[in-house]
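hi! just following up on the protien thing from before. the input was this:
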Amino acid sequence: MRSLIDHLLGSRTRAKVLRLLLTNPEKSYFVREISRKIHEHMNSVRRELQFLASVELIQSNGDGQKRFYRANIESPIFPELKALIFKAQVMEEQALLSAIQGSGRIHLLVLTGFFIGQENAQTDILIVGSVNRKRLERMMKSFQEHFDREIHYTVMTREEFEYRHALTDRFLYGILSGPIITVIDKRK
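and the predicted 3d structure came back as:
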């Protein structure tokens, strides 16, 4: 399943490279590192980096094997392109949320971790309710390609959630006491 941004840019690899570099404009990456982070072959990454550098969307520095790449924040279209990448990601998040909501009866749906900018959180999505877990797992694998990372999610039945909540479960309170985005809350 190709995302909107993949279609607009004409290449999934180009979209992934731009997404990585534009969302981290302060960082420089070498080719092998980019290839690992976006899960694409080095030759296709190298080809896209050469193209993006030729149209001055990215900058490269270094020599030979130690060439680093970063977003060209001086490019006149940098702000618009970064906004486009961000909007495409928001659309993908909305599609993911709609798919999750359609997977069963959800009582609580909370976004945390990656979705709020915390990279090392224990989970990215907390789902409380009765859902088709196999269907949910297939959906998550499909959406992980668009986010260029693994999405960690936790599913609990309503009874398990209430039990763990009553026990002051450390994992659960770690999620609920931190910054979160509540999408659905039908607990009352």
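The chain has two domains: 4-80, 102-185.
The longest helix spans residues 78-101.
cheers
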